[in-house]
What we know:
The chain is an alpha/beta fold. It has a single domain (about 10-185), classed as Rossmann fold, CATH 3.40.50. The chain has 8 helices and 5 strands, in the order βαβαααβαβααβα. It has helices at about 20-30, 40-50, 55-65, 70-85, 105-115, 130-140, 145-165, 180-190, and strands at about 10-15, 35-40, 95, 120-125, 170-175. Strands 2-3-1-4-5 form a 5-stranded parallel beta sheet, with helices on both faces.
Amino acid sequence: MNDLAGSTFVFIGRPGSGKGTQSELFVKDLEGEGYDVLRLTVGDLGRALGARQTLIGAWAKTMLDKGAAFPSWLAFTLLVDELAESLKDAKQVVVLDGAPRRLFEAKSLDELMTDLGRPAPRAIYIDISEEESRTRLAARMRGDDTPDAIENRLSWFATEVMPVIEYYDGRLVRIMGEGEIATVQESLAASV
């Protein structure tokens, strides 16, 4: 791997693409190389919000149960709040799983990293087909993976996330995600 100190990586892909698995393995590889890594998973931040016994927590749980996307102000606020709490120094590597998910968020994240004196984020797109996404989501049996919620997330990915992938052109690593986990991991390691 090149010197990645201070880098920010965003993992993007359809629901069930393996973003979480691959970002977790990527972090282990980075830590094995001696990097200090901050990994944030937007889905986990949203689910934690949905578990809160507050008005916004109850609303977030309803959104999650429907498979609806959080408004961009909330997703980005959760992300920035966690970065403010956990980002320690300019050399720390940041790995974001599932963010940014809208063009506004990608542009805002670029601006934030520039303001912090960090390089612009690089995107890692774990690419799987819609059919593979449906199959994987049906198999994982998570509470928010109902058939309607899956279709909502796939439709939303096509309209909201694809422009983010196009925005990152030139800073995007596309990894085919339908192979074995180790094969996808090897492709990723060879591409960064």
